[in-house]
Amino acid sequence: MSKDRPYSALVHRLKTAGLRPTRQRLALAKLLFESPGGDDRHITAEQLHAEALGESVRVSLATVYNSLHQFTEAGLLREVVVEPGRSYFDTNVSDHHHFYFEDSGELQDIPGEHVQMESLPAAPAGTRVARVDVIIRLSGD
Prior knowledge:
The protein is of the alpha+beta class. It is about 30% helix and about 20% strand.
């Protein structure tokens, strides 16, 4: 990618996912995917909003939520719901599960092959199992 087009990789990534690379989407994608740990981040909408404001990106919290959901629908992120009303967005979209530290609110990846299930119930008629997400909740002693 050209040095004089710093967003060209992100533009390509968004277009490939079927999203129009607006200024705000590009700014949020840069924070999500090009920050330290960008290939393995667990972030809430509120945390991303605070990062955006810290980088002088003028964006509303509603736009952050909308963008995160659009990125998720496009396959760029996974949403991890840890409890009603509390979601993290994961930049690692590979097959994996999570430890959830209830005391700190942090998530830690568990490789998919480290969780084994002998069987699953049959899916209701007309549906199929798309993915199984396991969240192991941890608390301090």
